[in-house]
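Hey, can you fold this one?
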Amino acid sequence: MLVLAETEASAHNSQKTPTHTILIQTVSLNLMKTEIINNLTRKNHFDRLVSNFKKSDEIVIVSPFISTDKNFFPFNKLKQLQKMTLVTTLKSKSLDQYNKVPIFKNLYDYCNKNSVELNILIENSLHGKIYISKKNGLSSEAIITSANFTNNGLRLNNEWGTIIFDSEIIKNLEENILSRVVLKPLTEKKVDQFLKILKKNPLPKNTNPIDVDLMGEIPIKKNPLRVNDKINYWLKPIGVSGDPISFDEIFDEIDKDLHFSKLKPVGVKIDDILISYAVEHKNILSIYRVKSEVKSTGKKNDRWPYYVVGENLTPFYGQEWSNYGIGISNQKTEVLENGLFNITPSGKNSYGSLMRGADKLRITPEFGQYLIDKIVKIDTEIKTKANTV
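Sure. Predicted structure:
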């Protein structure tokens, strides 16, 4: 078996700092051809990318670092190119902003001149580097590598990568990348706005401190977690009365077994959203997407025998939930006092069943998205700060 890409989460478990990298994908060698690429010969990353991109009508570049030299890569040779997606970082209050925004503008100038659709996405927990080539809507190959999109990364540094060709694996790879981007794409208008801000705030001579924070100018998507409109939203209590969740406990695991009582939760389906909160103090702990069918522990006397695996969608918030005081009670009050919408589908807007020990409560999509938007905003702010250091 060959592991194509592995997450860095395990390396950070002791520090409680998750790194959202790419899905572990293990395949049999006899099912898929792979190649190893390095910079030790002239057939390096640069050579491979130029060759691939010249034959492609769509490319995806995923790299935290990108070259500040607009001429380092021969985009002018990509005669068939119709669409380019760039996924990178933009660190708050850092030199990164002064370096990258002009490059974004150069890319827009090139794409406008050559009728290429450009999509610039910011994801500040990004660490992996991936390059995907497409033709006629189909993926031809992807490079998963340590090499950043810079001259040194693609040519001179001691870098290795794996090239894969399986279109279904590449499709899933790309989906996992894009699913973690919660901010709206950077339009050319927004890039021009950034350039004006930077011009009004010249880089300090010693470059420290830098007060400009462009991240605050990038709005979150309308549906940041890409929630399916056919799913249900649930409030999910965690903990038990008399033994509440401690305020120093964190919820930053990548996934978690979320348990239910002896009554099988038949209404909970894959892709549903579980907004977890702590019994007693009722603070929201994190937001999960259901990733499995309902399972059983198989233990005869188990008090909580049923469970689902939940994908943690807001692990950075889950590290610091106790600092924000966002609870299901104060959020309900906020919504109802402002007459925004109903909290529960019945319109009774009561948490009565939860207060009587129920293991879940279905809420309206409007309230679910209201909570998601608030938590995701905090999650993004924490993520940006954590990855600026």
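The radius of gyration is 23 Å. Let me know if you want another pass with a different chain boundary.
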